[in-house]
Amino acid sequence: MKLGMFTSGYQRNPLEHCFEDAKRFEYDFIELWGGRPHAYAPDLKAGEINEVKRLVEKYQMPVLGYTPEHNAYPYNFMIGSEHQRQDAVDYLKLCLDMAKEMNSDYMLISPAHAGYLASYEEIWNRMVKTIRELTEHAEKTKVKLVVETLTPYETNAFKSANDLLELFKRIDSPYLVGMCDLVPPFVQHESIMAYLEKLGKKMYHMHVIDGEQGTDSHIVPGEGSIPLPELFKELNYAGYDGTVTLELVTGYINEPRLYARRAIDQVRTYMRDAGY
User: Fold this and answer.
1) pLDDT digits (tens, 9 = 90+) for 218-228
2) Residue by residue, what is the 3-state secondary structure of 51-80?
3) Is 247 marked active-site?
4) Residue 107: is it exposed, middle or buried by C-beta count within 10 angstroms (0-12/13-18/19+)?
5) DSSP class per residue in 98-131
6) Residue 98: how many CB atoms within 10 A of its CB?
7) Would you kindly state where each structural domain of the chain is located, as residue ranges?
8) 31, 48, 154, 247: which one is catalytic?
9) Is 57 a catalytic residue?
10) Candidates 3.40.120.10, 3.20.20.150, 3.30.450.40, 3.30.70.1170; correct CATH number of 2-274?
11) β-pairing, 63-68 with 29-34?
12) Tens digit of pLDDT for each residue in 46-88?
């Protein structure tokens, strides 16, 4: 199982700190957050991708995943006019192009809130139309499109393993796959392990982090309420050997280097105890 560092929490630090720390703390790869000041796709297209490539080479630390900022301001393909939706699609197609340039294996998207007046039919029609367009572009770039479920605090559109199954039923492509962030199923009293059984070969990636009921906060492993030691034993028993990103976001933005080290040290302990 390969462990990745998510770089969102480093946005007040130089991008090089991410690569330096990933190497120092023995992460296997980086899941690069695509927002300013580090890796916003239009900036990468304008030439800043060369700095990312330099850091990949210097630290021998691949960017296996690219996660563009797209479910807050100014992009959210689930809400707004058709012009706004198409603008988000064009942006995410550029993100796929940049993911290819970085030799990333996957790009991650998550359908955000569709607004309080949207019906189920409107939500699904818009979501399928958008993700089909992005999947067709992913097939051209040969970069897998990983779709992530979110918590009810973040979305009214896409929250469960069943939502992923429904999406795969409507769009059939080897370049469209799913994942599980531990917090959404945990706070909704859904089974984390059910994602593996339901998605099967479509279960491509995980965000491993701790959490608490009643919040979408992403907490350092071992400091929340998710039974992570037992979870890793079950993941090993189930044969999961895919990629895992330790998704610390902005809750630790004041000291990302300290908490990135703590997170991987704790998870490595869980893995050893689980027999990985």
Assistant:
1) 999 999 999 99
2) HHHHHHHHHCCCEEEEEECCCCCCCCCCCC
3) yes
4) buried
5) HHHHTT-SEEEE------TT--HHHHHHHHHHHH
6) 27
7) 2-274
8) 247
9) no
10) 3.20.20.150
11) parallel
12) 999 999 999 999 999 999 999 999 987 899 999 999 999 999 9
Structure tokens at 132: 């089909």
For residue 23, count other CB atoms closer than 10 A to its CB.
16
Q: Which of 16, 148, 190, 230 is catalytic?
A: 148
β-bridge partners, 181: 207
The 10s digit of each residue's pLDDT in 178-232 is 999 999 999 999 999 999 999 999 999 999 999 999 999 999 999 999 999 999 9
Maximum alpha-carbon separation in the chain = 51
Structure tokens at 198: 């339901």
Question: What's the pLDDT at 72?
Answer: 79
Closest CA to 127 of 151, 108, 147: 147
DSSP-derived letter for residue 223 is S
